[in-house]
Design brief:
- By secondary structure, the chain is of the alpha/beta class.
- The protein folds into two domains: 95 residues, Beta Barrel (Thrombin, subunit H), CATH 2.40.10; 322 residues, TIM Barrel (Alpha-Beta Barrel).
- Helices cover 37% and strands 21% of the residues.
- The strands form four sheets. Strands 10-17-16-15-14-13-12-11 form an eight-stranded parallel sheet. Strands 1-2-3-6-5-4 form a six-stranded antiparallel barrel.
- It is elongated.
- The structure holds flavin mononucleotide (FMN).
- The site of flavin mononucleotide (FMN) has 26 residues, from α1, β13 and α12.
Length: 444
């Protein structure tokens, strides 16, 4: 199958109406066409020069084009070139909602959940001389001091649930004094009606908020303007640009060219009114690429490594093509494990501000990320799932992370986060020591 024939499959078919009382459902969508199913079996030869697609109340999309029969006799509505931007808007809205639904219900993480953090432990301190209520868990980023080294990483909320999800996440950020990112604001740049989804500072003006766009948006001629508009839209304190090559390359409607991104990032860092953060979403950033990013003026890097949410795999779940699904399966475990990426980036860039995201699922792993050099550990999927349930669920989840972090600190005898790095070891605590002693004895 040619990639251009790939379609996004729709689990809940979307209704359409056309001329002369024609009507039916859309069963799948490609970046240029919509596969039509007629309501009545007596409409086998659908002829229509327009169709109206109804995504929800007051969310109609009118397309001009023509019908063509594709393999198996399925009628496909080919959208006229000048209506393709409307089709992209429709696809964008469907995509965001699908991402939420898939992340909520499916197993979307790398198959073995290996982040590299499994290979390190802390050496316990049985006599810590510390009070768990007096530990210093504070960490700073971009000149702001936060109570915990935990970031609510930027996540799409979708059009239907975005406002609710973002407002719950923002309440958590305010309650715990931790930074928060929003998901891609592209949808609101294309259609200002959706800006409300991201306006969390209206309710929580004091939080530290990161805007978000993809590096695909840097290809637009007016990218500087788009990025500044994204910042102004939500009074962002920083703008995160996400890198997601594998996701885009597998996604049915993804961008395929990443030419010139670094030069444009350099210009953006010079011009934007707030600092620029660059984040991967699950493939990791190598030490070498981290250096190149810092050299062009990027202020913070989120290494976004392998082991957590796998975006290439998610795109396979959206596709109707068995070939794309099989490709997506083979890339499910692609990437630099999060622990390796953050450790290497810290080694390469001792002074840099670093975030470790990707598969961080408990407070102990937050402590390990900090010990390896992260200023913050970013958490995505678990916060999204909790936000879909309730504000209380989010609070409970955060409490478990905070307790886990504090237990790791007191258990290893660390009063502050900076002490954690002296207490990590590869493999089991004292294993190297044990091996040395036993080896030396054996040589007598
Ligand atoms: C539902 C969902 C939507 C996401 N949307 C975005 C997005 O719009 N922009 C972005 O930079 N990252 C997005 N991410 C990626 C996360 O910020 C994070 O990098 C990734 O999920 C890995 O972290 P995790 O393993 O803790 O989920 C999204 C993640 C989830 C789960």
């Amino acid at each position: 199958m040619n990639q251009k024939d790939d379609h996004v499959s729709l689990n809940s078919p979307i209704p359409w109406v056309g001329p002369s009382g024609l009507s039916g459902f859309i069963s799948s969508i490609s970046p240029t066409s919509l596969a039509l199913k007629a309501f009545q079996p007596d409409q086998p030869n659908i002829q229509a020069n327009y169709i109206k697609v109804m995504l929800g109340p007051e969310r109609d999309f009118l397309f001009h084009g023509s019908v063509r029969l594709i393999d198996g006799g399925i009628p496909e509505f080919i959208v006229d070139d000048d209506h393709l931007p409307i089709l992209h808007d429709l696809l964008g809205q469907i995509r965001k909602n699908q991402h939420i639904e898939i992340c909520q219900h499916d197993d979307v993480e790398s198959s073995d959940k290996y982040t590299g953090f499994q290979d390190i432990q802390f050496t316990p301190e049985a006599l810590p001389e510390l009070d768990i209520n007096q530990l210093d868990t504070a960490s700073s980023l971009l000149g702001r001091r936060f109570d915990f080294p935990i970031l609510i990483t930027g996540m799409t909320g979708g059009v239907d649930k975005g406002t609710l999800i973002n407002s719950r996440l923002a309440a958590l950020a305010a309650e715990y004094n931790i930074p928060m990112g929003v998901g891609s604001q592209r949808i609101a740049l294309d259609n200002p009606d959706y800006a409300n989804i991201f306006h969390v500072k209206r309710q929580h003006p004091g939080i530290f908020l990161m805007g978000n766009l993809g590096f695909a948006q840097l290809r637009a001629a007016n990218y500087l303007d788009l990025c500044q508009r994204a910042v102004d839209m939500i009074e962002a304190d920083a703008l995160a640009i996400h890198l997601n090559v594998i996701q885009e390359a597998i996604q049915v409607e993804g961008d395929r060219s990443f030419l010139g991104a670094l030069d444009r990032l350099a210009k953006l860092c010079e011009e934007l009114s707030v600092p620029v953060i660059v984040k991967e979403v699950g493939s990791g950033i190598s030490a070498n690429t981290a250096r190149r990013l810092f050299e062009v003026g990027v202020s913070v890097i989120d290494v976004g490594g392998r082991g957590g949410t796998s975006w290439g795999y998610i795109e396979g779940l959206r596709s109707s093509s068995p070939q794309t699904k099989s490709l997506a399966n083979s890339f499910r475990d692609w990437g630099i494990p999060t622990a390796f990426a953050v450790c290497a980036a810290r080694h390469e860039l001792p002074q840099a501000s670093l975030i470790a995201t990707g598969g961080i699922r408990d407070g102990l792993t937050v402590a390990k990320a900090v010990a390896l050099g992260a200023n913050f550990a970013g958490i995505g999927l678990p916060f999204l799932r909790a936000a879909l349930l309730s504000e209380q669920e989010l609070h409970n989840q955060m409490e478990v992370y905070v307790r886990g972090l504090k237990i790791a600190m007191i258990g290893s005898g660390c009063r502050s986060l900076s002490e954690l790095k002296q207490k990590i070891c590869l493999g089991h605590p004292m294993q190297r020591h044990f091996e040395q002693i036993v080896t030396a004895k054996g040589s007598y």
